[in-house]
Each structure stands twice: as structure tokens, then as C-alpha cells.
Amino acid sequence: MTRLGQLRSEARFNLLGFRRSPAATFFTVVLPIIFLVIFTSIFGNEIISSTGARVATVYVPGILALALVSANFMNAAIVTVIRRESGVLKAMRATPLPPWVYVGGQVAASLVLTAIMTALVIGIGWLGYSVEVQPGAVPSLLITLGVGAAAFSALGLAITCVCPSEQAAPAITNMCVLPLYFVSDVFIPSEGAPRWMTLIGDIFPIKHLAVALGRTFDPFSEGVPLPAWRWAILGAWGVFGVLVTVRFFRWTPRN
Amino acid sequence: MTAEARLAIEVTGLHKRYGEVEAVTCVDLSVRTGEVVAFLGPNGAGKTTTVEILEGLRTRTSGDVHVLGVDPAEATADWRERIGVVLQGAKHEGDFTAAEIVTMWSAYYRSPRPTAEVLELVGLAEAAGTRTRRLSGGQQQRLAVALALVGDPELVFLDEPTTGFDPAARREAWQTIDGLRSLGVTVLLTTHYMDEADRLADRIAVISRGRIVADGTAPELAAQVAMPSHISWDAAELSTEALPHRLRDLLRSQDAWERPALVTRDVGGVVRELLATAEAVGTRLDSLAVQPPTLEDTYLALTGDTSSGDGS
What we know:
Helix content of chain A: over 70%
Oligomer: heterodimer
Low-confidence stretches of chain B: 306-312
Order of helices and strands of chain B: EEEHEHEHHHEHEHEEHEHEHEH
Helix content of chain B: 25-40%
Strand order of the largest sheet of chain B: 5-6-7-3-8-9
């Protein structure tokens, strides 16, 4: 089979496995939408006096960031650790499949999930809460999604290096992202939060993803949003993820 | 074809050390094309380490290794097209069906066998649509063999294909492995069951504490260690008190409920002398039985290991 055919096959089976896993579908597809509905219901969809925009313009990009992190980071990391610990990755190493095609297939599957979740979240935001992507901001949205997906895919592989077992994987990945959601403009705006909280948010990548996405939905932004340094920080985290993966990734079970 | 080209596997002086531990001290092994060879030894003898070096999944400390004419340490995708690997305790992703997994793996090879054909080969055709989490242990193992066969390999490695199986599952696995022979595939399998090695392989290489201690067919191995036979009878027919001294020295230590038995390699001589003794006391000794050394005796003598043969 051609390399492209192999990539397509790997992506297809990754998506099939995802569809058949209730936990993966719930956390990546259902939960973000529940959060979107809950947050906009609790806080109403009023016009915020300080910015003049509706509450949902904050939550749509926040939840989109959450879904992207779920699809590319959480999901990929958990699946990879399960495959590693059950010996599937080791057996795969004994086949002619190049490692990059395996990784590429998984990233491609995550990208498809990201695209589906983007359409869903933006669709719900638009139909239910009158949140619109500014037409001029579409290229910026696509770049942010692309850079974000690449960075979190790399970090997803990197985090498997510290997951000792398949039981530990969901706990460790959640421990990484859950607290960060609270200081990264995902669940609540970080405006007015204590200095140490905004600082933590600024160090890690989730906030930069959420804020860069937020610029896309801001009805009052002037011209085309170009959150270049947010992209740069996301990219740097991606490079860090690649370096850790190249150095520490293992194909064989730990146990 | 040269003599070397007919060797699928050629190993000389293989040595593997993990820190202070010598997993493999010295392994010499050759497997001819089309041959089925069992690599037999107790747990921890170095079987899996050796096989994983041959599969290109582990590095070695020293020694010469050629598998299909290639050093596995420099394995290429082309070389991997030609081998099939079944790892010890192979597991599958539970959410996929058997057929889906075979199809997924067939994409890894240049000219794979069709999925239906592979499932037929390993006797899983009727389970094609079953999720792998619902397959029995024997079926899971056959699926692992299917994955090793999907690329149409010349050489297949099977690492402990039946460990932990009940007798029925073991028989299933044996049938599948016999099927490989009819495909003309060269097979190297590891096992810690002498009967399995004898049943499946043309030749048995016995490994113990990281060394090859014997290499040959089961009768050749038995001849090599020349284990004694047991000659037993009913104590009611002939009391051990009646035995002449020469025979009494051959008596095995026995529990009260056991038949008396003489342990010897000189079966003919001892039986003649025993019958003569019986005749002298006026009994026919109809209960006489001669028990040749078992495969298990041979194996235990070769590996010098008394705790083996009990599974893992």
C-alpha cells in the first residue's frame, strides 16, 4: 500500500476505535457541549458591559479550546498508552510500517475530530447564542486550530513517557489539563484573577490557544486578528513535545 | 543455492547483558529454510531475549546474527516484509473485530494476503465479525498468528504460543502451527513444554541459563542424556526382600503405596535377572512393566532444572 493509503487506513481505524469507545466519545464530543450549554445557562447570554460582547463569545472559543485539547492531547495520549501496555505498539514495531506513518495516522484522526468539534461548537454558538466568526478572522481561526492541534498532539505523545500504566494515563492527563482550564480562559475569564493564577495561565499553552481562538469571535476586533506571539508560544510547546517524544518515547510495555 | 543461503537463521556466540545480569551467555543456533525449530527452556533461560534479538526488537551485546541473510540490528522495512512475529502474550485492541484488525495490519505490507484468506488459514473464519475482547484465549492467539501471516512472510517467530492455555486451546494452537508447515514457512517457536516441542518441531534446541545445552530431535536428545528406565512390578507377586543384592541396589526409593521399581539403563540384563529371581520363588511376575524415560525426564536432565514444566 502507498504511504498515503497507509495514513488513511490508520486514521480510519483510529476514528473507528474512537467511535466505539464510550469514554473517548463522551469526554471529547459530549462533555464540551454540555459545558457550553451549562456555562451559558448559568451566566446567561447577556451583553458584558466592559466589552460590549455577549457572554457566549467568551464560552464558544473556550469550549472549542477544551475540545481541541481533548481530541489531540487526552485522547491520543490515553490510546497510545493502552496500545503500548497491551504490547500492540511493540508488535507494530516488528512490521514494516514506518513509525512516522503510525504517528501521522493518529494525528490525522485527531485533526478530523478537531474539525468535527469546531463545526459543532461554532454551529451551536451561532444557532443558539448568536456568536459568529468574523469573516476576516477565518484564516486566523484555521491557523490557530492547526498550530494548536499540532502542539497538543506532540504534547499528547510526550505525556505518555510519564504514564506508567493504562490506569494512570487518564488520571495524569486530567491532572495536567483540568486545573489549567480554570486559569486559561476556558471555564472562567482570567480577568481580575490573582497575579499567580494569570502567571500560571501564561506559562502553559492552553490559555494561549483559548485567547487566540477568542480573538476570532470578538465582534469589535479591528482588522484581521494576528495573535502571532500566542502562536509562537503554542509552537514552542509543540517543539518541546516533539523533543521529549523523540528522546523518551517507548514502544514496549512498562509492565 | 549455497549452503548459507539455505539457512534462515544463523546465530554464533550470541551474548546479551543487562547491566550486571547475563540474560544470554552463549547461543549458537542455525535454522534451515522450511524447518520448524523449537527453542526449549525453562522460564528465565533467555528464550525471549534471544528471539527478540532475532526479531530486531532488542539489541545484543555481542555475537553474530543473521536472519534471512540480514543482521536484525540493521533491520529495514524490506526485511520486515519477510518476517512475521507473534509476541509472548499478544493482546489486541478489544473494540475491533478480528477481521478489522487483520485488515488494519494488512495495510502495513506491500502485498498482503486477503483478510478472509488469513482468517481461514488460522481457523478464525467464523469469528471474523467478533470483537476481539470476546475471543477466547486460543482464538486471540490464533489472531496473533494471523497478524504474523498477513504479510506472507518466509519466517515466523512464535514466542510461547500456548503458555497459560487449557488443553483444548493448546490443541487449537498446535493445529494452527502445523498449518504453517504446510505453507512452507520457516518457524522458530519458543516453549517450556517438552511435549509441545516434540509434537511441533523438526528439531529442538534446548536453552538453559543463557546457553544452548542440546540440539537435535527428541530421540537424539533422549539418547544424549541416556536417562534410565524404570522396571516395576506388584509387591504382592515378589517381595523386595527376595531380590539378590545386585538388584536391590537398583531399587528406587519408594513410598509404601508405590510399586517397587528398579532404575537402570541395562533393561535387558536386569529384566532377565529379575525373571530368574521370580521363577526361583515360583511366581510368573505378570505385573512386570518397563517404563522408558519420559520427555519430561530428558528435559529436566538437560536443563538441570527441577522446578520447570509447571507453566508460568
